[in-house]
UniProtKB/TrEMBL annotation:
Membrane topology term: Multi-pass membrane protein
Organism superkingdom: Bacteria
Gene Ontology process terms (BP): transmembrane transport
Chain ranges passing through the membrane: 42-60, 109-132, 144-163, 240-258, 299-322
SUPFAM superfamilies, per the entry: MetI-like
Family matches, as PANTHER family: BLL4140 PROTEIN (PTHR43227:SF11)
Family: Belongs to the binding-protein-dependent transport system permease family.
Name used for this protein in its record: Sugar ABC transporter permease
Length: 331
């Protein structure tokens, strides 16, 4: 190989120039492809504009107000004019017994909902898939879907009436067996089972639609091959249906874990009372009382930010574990 600078120098410069020109053309071609795509599919992007505006206005713009969690906020001074106090509100939160109680209740209720509530839509979807009588199947689906479309206020009214100590059906049935009436909604130990059971009754049927759609995507040839091999309905459910919808189950589980601290605020507000604060008060109701009723907007913002941070960590952790062990994840 020659070391003459007159030979290697111009040749190297020519190669660098060619590489630069190729890179410029590649970038130009990429921009042109993007431009051609936008011209060809511009209707789709126009349809996206309302959604993007909604996200910017109602989800991203309010993030500007998160800074009041680190300020001594005053509605008269505004967000920009309020002085910074650092982590003072977070120190106040973790020294507040009511917040710690609310956090504990939130975790316990969410854990119960995950353990008992998450499998129910899956079981319903599997049972609906095994029903052969179409009229009965559609009727049953309509009945279990219906509570989802009923207002939480009406659902709470039904629950209060059902557990009433004087005219409630639960106490009436208990009276047939000589059991004294119990005012369930004033007993702290009964609030969590009632709340979790109500949530399952209201949402399990509607949530089963996702799993029914996943089951509908399973190839019929798998079932045909299993029938030829002599498999029973039970074996086909365990060996074909469940493994086929496992990716959907994992995705829904990750989303459910991310929402663990988002306990149904409306239902708790409608059902709880001071007598059941010990087991019914959750982070969202604490934020409501401190922020809306008590006017401590900065402390409530700190609690909400803590809630969001924990949810983010839970989603990332669940997604990482799922990706590592099942190769199924949100991203």
């Amino acid at each position: 190989m020659s070391s003459d600078p007159n030979v290697t120098g111009p040749r190297t410069e020519a190669l660098v120039a060619d590489a630069s020109e190729a890179l410029r053309r590649r970038k130009g071609g990429r921009v042109q492809r993007v431009g051609d795509h936008l011209k060809r599919e511009w209707q789709l992007y126009v349809m996206l504009i309302p959604t993007i505006l909604w996200l910017l206005i109602f989800l991203y713009k309010p993030m500007y107000g998160l800074q009041i969690a680190f300020k001594d906020y005053s509605i008269f001074r505004g967000v920009a004019g309020s002085p910074w106090v650092g982590l003072e509100h977070f120190q106040t939160l973790f020294g507040n017994e009511q917040f710690l109680r609310a956090l504990k209740n939130t975790v316990i209720i969410s854990f119960y909902s995950l353990i008992f509530g998450f499998p129910m839509p899956i079981l319903l979807a599997l049972m609906f898939n095994e029903i052969l009588h179409q009229t009965f199947k559609k009727t049953a689906q309509t009945i279990v879907y219906l509570p989802h479309f009923i207002s939480s206020v009406i659902i709470a009214g039904i629950v209060i009436t059902a557990f009433s100590p004087s005219a409630g059906i639960v106490n009436t049935v208990m009276g047939w067996f000589g059991i004294e009436p119990i005012y369930f909604l004033t007993r702290a130990e009964w609030f969590r089972p009632i709340f979790v059971g109500t949530s399952i009754w209201q949402e399990a049927g509607f949530q089963s639609i996702v799993y029914l759609a996943a089951i509908a995507g399973v190839s019929p040839t798998l079932y045909e091959s299993a029938v030829v091999d002599g498999a029973s309905r039970w074996q086909m459910m365990w060996k074909i249906t469940l493994p086929s919808i496992l990716p959907t189950i994992i995705i829904m589980l990750i989303i459910r874990i991310g929402n663990m601290l988002e306990v149904s605020f409306e239902m708790i507000i409608l059902l709880y009372q001071p007598a059941t604060y010990q087991t019914a008060d959750v982070v969202n109701t604490f934020i409501y009382r401190q922020g809306i009723q008590g006017g401590q907007y900065d402390l409530a913002a700190a609690a909400g930010l803590f809630n969001a941070a924990v949810a983010f960590v839970l989603v990332m952790t669940a997604n990482t574990i799922a990706k590592r062990y099942s190769r199924t994840s949100l991203w």
